[in-house]
Amino acid sequence: MQIRSFEITAIEAKRFSKSGERMANIKVENNSTITQMARGEGGLSHIDFRFTANYTGLGYIKIEGQITVSEMEEKVLDEWRGTNKLPVDDANTIHNAVVSNCMVTALIVAREIKLPAPLPIPRINVQKKPEARPSNGVEVA
Question: How many domains does the chain have?
Answer without folding.
Answer: 1
